Amino acid sequence: MTCPPLPNLEDLMAFRNDPDAVRIARKLKADIRRAADSVALEALYAAAAHRFPNDAPMQALQKLGLETTALLRDLGRLGEDARSVQDAERARLEPLTRAATKRMFAAIERLGSIPRIVAAYEGTAREKRRELKLLGVEDQAIIERVAPMPDREQFEAEENALKAEIAALERFIRTGDESDLPPGIEPEPMRVAEMRHIEQKSRLAQLAEEVAALLAAPARR
Hints:
Order of helices and strands: HHHHHHH
Helix content: over 70%
């Protein structure tokens, strides 16, 4: 059995965003671990003898072990590659994620303020209408023009639009799927402190590489 190729980024992200698939994968990993622990030594010898019938038991077992551990190491490296790809994608999306989070908080704040805004408009309109009646104005058309009530349908439409936008932003923040992003969102620029932190990390990484190279070089006599 050979190690499979690394799936593309789209498939990796789709897998990570599929809770049922992730749950099954975790269960499969646990099942494999339990199955491996339950294998008897005689079963390993039988598999090795079948795979390498011309070898002595010790050599057959060693060869089977090399094949098995090589595949497991390849799968481990494949997992590391997959994590690296996903980490790079998350880093690429980080400025957009910050912008989406900021936009979502603003939308939530606006959504929560709409009932207060409507109540304030209605209170102001009622007060104006009371004052107009005190002035003797009875013409309803004039009253509605001078002291209009807020358009509740307009505010309801805004509420529905905000709810849809918040849901889309939540999906993007959770999944990283850029198709969920509402229009008009630009990547949030990185703050100076974050840039300095990354620069410091890169300097430390470069220094670590230099030290590793010195340690790996043969000592001079």
